[in-house]
Amino acid sequence: MNPGIQLGVAKLNRNRNAFAGGIRDGIPIALGYFAVAFSLGIVARKAGLNPFQGFLSSMLNHASAGEYAEFTVIMANAPYFEMAFVILVTNIRYLLMSCALSQKFDSGAALGHRLLVGFGITDEIFGISVGKPGCLNPYYSYGAMAIALPGWAMGTAMGVAAGNVMPVSVVSALSVALYGMFVAIIIPAAKTGRVVGGVILVSFLASFAVSRIPAFDGLSESMKISLLTVGIAGAAAFLFPLKDAPGEQDEAGKDVD
């Protein structure tokens, strides 16, 4: 077989395997998203959205805080500029996550891959993607996005359709699964690395402290998270820099156009 064809087939197989792995790891995320988005859909219904509008909103806005702020602004009949600004502030942490995740791509990864992965980033997708050893194949993130984001959007649409039929207490109880899933993402990393475990512990304590300090009451939750992320991650990177192992690279991250 022609060497060029062999190389193309090998690259296709790597991307296909990465995509399948992302779908597999994204299934529990999709289930958790559906439960949380269902309750969000009830808020969307109160804002006057129909199921299709709720679905489209969640396909374009992948954060519960950002969407809740969006629906609140809609109910207040605020102008589009105010809506855009509120969503920007509540979702600003994803800019940091996208920049951090792009550093895991192979140096030959195209700009288009970086932009697409950045568009579909969420807390949980970032967690499983950044936890992959070696270079990250963007098709892994695509696989997780392909199952998780429709689950989020479908949950919102179903919530809009169901309205207040289901008791709010039941919907709130279902949303606990999402927090349990996020804990399951960070605990293995904390067990395998003492520095990571320490950073997680410091993050918990700092987040609790900031929530209790009146001086930070004027900041949105997303802004608080962003400031803590920059501060704690920057301090950890300065105090405990990672040493690159010569020649260490994950095959999954190579040859991605």
Topology:
Layout: H1 3-46, H2 51-60, H3 64-75, H4 80-90, H5 93-102, H6 111-119, H7 123-130, H8 138-162, H9 168-192, H10 194-212, H11 221-239
Notes on the structure:
The chain has 257 residues and is an all-alpha fold. Helices cover 75% and strands 0% of the residues. The protein contains eleven helices and no strands. The protein has helices spanning 3-46, 51-60, 64-75, 80-90, 93-102, 111-119, 123-130, 138-162, 168-192, 194-212, 221-239. Helix 1 crosses helix 3, helix 1 packs parallel to helix 8 and helix 3 packs antiparallel against helix 4. The longest helix is centred in the first third of the chain and has 44 residues, at 3-46. The radius of gyration is 20 Å and the shape is globular. 31% of the residues are buried. The model is unreliable at 245-253 (pLDDT under 50).
Tell me, briefly, the overall form.
Answer: globular
Task: Look at the structure and give the mean pLDDT.
Answer: 81
**Structural class by secondary-structure content:** mainly alpha
Strand content: under 5%
* End-to-end gap: 22 Å
Keywords for this entry:
mainly alpha; 11 helices; single chain; 75% helix; 257 residues
Short synopsis of the structure:
With 257 residues, the chain is an all-alpha fold. The protein contains eleven helices and no strands. 31% of the residues are buried.
